[in-house]
Amino acid sequence: MSVESEDEAAEHETRSNLELTRQIYDDVRTEFRAWKSAHARMKLSSLYSAGSPESTKKFRIPEHCLDSPPSPALDTNCEAGAWMQVLNYDSNGTIIDSTAQPIHVYNVKYAAFLPFPEDPNFPVDLYLDSFEGLQWIDDLVGPDEEVIQFEVVRRLHIDHGVSPEDIDGVLRLCGDQEHIPHLSLRESHESGLLWAVSQRDLPDVIWPRRHSPPHFARSFPDPKDDFGIINKGIRKFCPNLNCIQDNCGVHVSYDWELQTPPFRPKEPLYASTQLLALVDDPCENECFSLLSEDAMDDDSLDDLPVSHRTVLNSILKVEPDMRPCELAVICEMTCSNVFLLRKQVLGDDVKTPPPNLTKTKKSKLKLYAPCAHSGPCSSTQACLCFEMHRRCERNCQCDDNCVRRFPGCNSTLSPKCKCRKAFRECDPEKCTACNARHLECTNTGLQQGASQHIAVRESKYGLGAFAAKNLEKGTLIGEYVGELLRTLQFEQRHVIQKHGHLNYVHGFFVCLPTADSACSASGQNGGDTIDAQWLGNPTRFLNDSKPRSQIAKQVVHIFVNGEKRIAITTSEGLEQSVRGAELTLSYGEQYWEGMLLQAKDDKNATRTKATTKR
Ligand SMILES: C[S@@+](CC[C@H](N)C(=O)[O-])C[C@H]1O[C@@H](n2cnc3c(N)ncnc32)[C@H](O)[C@@H]1O
């Protein structure tokens, strides 16, 4: 076949694939629309039968109004000419009447929806300001389009045998010609149409000719690439080691890369013979510390199975300085063999700390991120914790005995407990004297979920929390829990809650002045806030003690295994909170300043609106 005819054949195939794809697209779109409207009708009829008054109203913006450009800012006079037509339906779906109402046009470029749209006092500009810096994703493939494309791909591949490569080409061509945003099937192991679809619960569309979904080869890291496998796997879990949630949505920030730095091979800090200094007592597994000098130089390990070598090699990349006695247990080998193999693999030179492996992005350090680098946590290693003047915590990748880590207490006596003084709960891994591991220690209340029974009932300011029994001073009443908000969400919620004069947001910014120096900056959630409006426990009903009450409680921000949490306790200064008394705490002047300012602004806005109308 000549070169020209080969080209022609390829062109012909592309053209027929394109026609086929267009045809399939048309079919799938028609089937999907039919399914969707049947689905919507079913929903609507269930609403009618439930007799919901809302179901008899529908809103529609007349089409000619959609053409008008949105006005740059709040357009109170509706100059852009946008109207909303309100149609009233009876229970048979017949229109009873229709009225046209002018609508305000906001340049809502970023906000998904506007709260209190009918309330002229809502601070729209302030609310929209909090969305600054966000933008639409231009090439977003909508969820409906994704379902349609997935089905098109399935039919092309299963019914017509088109290869994944050709499908990619023809989808691109079709998308470009018809201006349909599209994804290629696989862009990386974490992006592309197939990956996006695998992340969703697809709607249960009943396609006329449903087959099993296509299986396209997915790429996995090379089985010999230990770090590739670890780094692919760790993304499935929450980076916070205290959390056991897979695909956790609470602790994972938008900046995954920074929050969970990939694991990298560690450089050994000790020469093999220097490991002898780390052994106090020889282990019972043919301990290397008992080897004669001659035997130490013998590096013939002929009898060692290959699988043992492979396992040890992998572990040495992650923990090169682990004691041979411990490694021997993990690898099911004798301690002497571990020692000899380590010597063979890593040599016997004293290692100097390697150059910086982790380049940290300083501009993004607002969020808490654990440190991850080789060598000790010092200025030479670009250690994030060192730079931020904070302690290393459990999520950091440094050794357990890193000097920047809080050492834990070695005391069973509460006034002497270093952890209490530093506003930390005792650490089950470090505080052995008080037996924190088995939760015998009294400084583990938040970890144990300890709380006091609180009665919730009407108070002077809406609902309030009341002591259900006499409470001794210093008693942990409970933990202030709710949704963990990032700064941006916090700003948005704050505007809404202040407007409603009901605010359940509690910040982590404040820290008691006597706290450990690590307190102000460190913590997995430093800089975040807790919002108890929609989720919480009875501590959300503690009102403010203004004017000063005799039974004020205190809020303490406590470190629990590297995370900041909010404990509410009865004040140390007071003898006892009696049964039936209202439990209150001080919200702080700032809280009320914000709320009052807002109330004043609202009043002024009403007055201005009224004057303008007149
Ligand atoms: C965390 S909530 C407390 C529970 C609230 N009373 C309820 O009914 O859900 C805080 C809100 O309670 C009200 N509040 C609490 N203490 C108050 C006080 N001393 N004076 C006026 N309002 C107060 C305010 O509306 C405030 O935004």
UniProtKB/TrEMBL annotation:
It comes from the Eukaryota. GO terms for molecular function: chromatin binding; histone H3K27 methyltransferase activity. Residues 341-451 form the CXC domain. One of its GO terms (biological process) is heterochromatin formation. Residues 452-588 form the SET domain. Keywords: Methyltransferase, S-adenosyl-L-methionine, Transcription, Transcription regulation, Transferase. The keyword Chaperone does not apply. The keyword Nucleus does not apply. One of its GO terms (cellular component) is ESC/E(Z) complex. This is SET-domain-containing protein. It comes from Favolaschia claudopus.
